[in-house]
């Protein structure tokens, strides 16, 4: 257990370790060998905004495929992933209505403006797909992208664990190292106003999210956000599995007449701070 009074020093250590040249989590040179710079995955840098658009669309499609092949597209059209356009900042890319996540390609993605209109744009990365989009997806994500200029990507799907957990009306608890990733960095939208078609409901969801990385939508599911679609997708999958683990742990404890053991505040906070944006982006690359 990490000493509670050492949290400030530990947080400083995280920053120092992250700046070590050639550092990579879990990679160490063999004893007695000559060390060389370790090749490491980094957040990408782009030569042009057109190149960045092309990259975002490619990873957007890859994220949708990952979600599809992991069972997050089994509720028909009930799921959507958006990525802010790097050139037209008030526009975002979204998956077309009714197309399986498993077969998504960059050219299938639709570009939508803040009025909900699907638009066509030329340039690197291809044209936008002139196809209908999920109106609920637009209402949720448009409000979110407006409220959070720092958010470049958002993921929302209807998984069985998240739907079950959302009906309880509580937040995720720090019962594991992985769950600490969301410790005091997710919120609960304790209301259900039906399918989100209205701008007002979308705005309330965005307000509930606040400045956090995830929100549990009561009687609905979960939504995650990040500065890359890779990170937002990883967070969605990670949160869904943490929710499943908590449901299993709570059920086991109920049968034994006990409760789960929670990680302390200082330790949970320190662990959460290890999972920065770059590390979360890197985590998705292994999937």
TrEMBL record:
SMART domains, alphabetized: Aldolase_II (SM01007)
Pfam families: Aldolase_II (PF00596)
GO MF term set: actin filament binding
Domain Class II aldolase/adducin N-terminal: 58-247
GO CC terms of this entry: cytoskeleton
Protein name (record): Arad-like aldolase/epimerase
Organism: Rhizodiscina lignyota
């Amino acid at each position: 257990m990490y000493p509670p009074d050492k949290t400030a020093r530990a947080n400083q250590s995280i920053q120092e370790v992250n700046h070590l040249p050639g550092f990579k989590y879990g990679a160490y040179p063999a004893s007695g060998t000559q060390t060389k710079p370790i090749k490491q995955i980094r957040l990408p840098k782009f030569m042009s905004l057109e190149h960045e658009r092309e990259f975002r669309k490619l990873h957007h499609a890859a994220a949708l495929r990952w979600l599809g092949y992991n069972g997050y597209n089994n509720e028909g059209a009930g799921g959507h992933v958006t990525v802010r356009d790097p050139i037209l900042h008030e526009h975002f890319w979204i998956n077309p209505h009714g197309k399986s996540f498993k077969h998504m390609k960059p050219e299938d993605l639709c570009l939508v403006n803040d009025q909900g209109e699907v638009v066509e744009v030329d340039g690197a990365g291809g044209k936008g797909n002139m196809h209908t989009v999920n109106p609920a997806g637009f209402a949720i994500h448009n409000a979110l992208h407006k409220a959070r200029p720092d958010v470049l990507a958002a993921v929302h799907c209807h998984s069985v664990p998240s739907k079950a957990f959302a009906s309880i009306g509580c937040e995720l608890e720090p019962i594991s190292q992985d769950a600490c990733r969301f410790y005091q960095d997710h919120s609960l939208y304790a209301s259900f106003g039906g399918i989100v078609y209205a701008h007002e409901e979308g705005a309330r969801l965005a307000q509930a999210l606040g400045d956090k990385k995830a929100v549990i939508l009561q009687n609905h599911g979960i939504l995650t956000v990040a500065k890359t679609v890779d990170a937002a997708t990883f967070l969605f999958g990670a949160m869904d599995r943490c929710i499943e683990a908590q449901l299993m742990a709570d059920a086991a404890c109920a049968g034994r007449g006990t409760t789960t053991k929670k990680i302390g505040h200082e330790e949970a906070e320190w662990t959460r701070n290890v999972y920065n944006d770059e590390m979360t982006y890197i985590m998705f690359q292994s999937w």
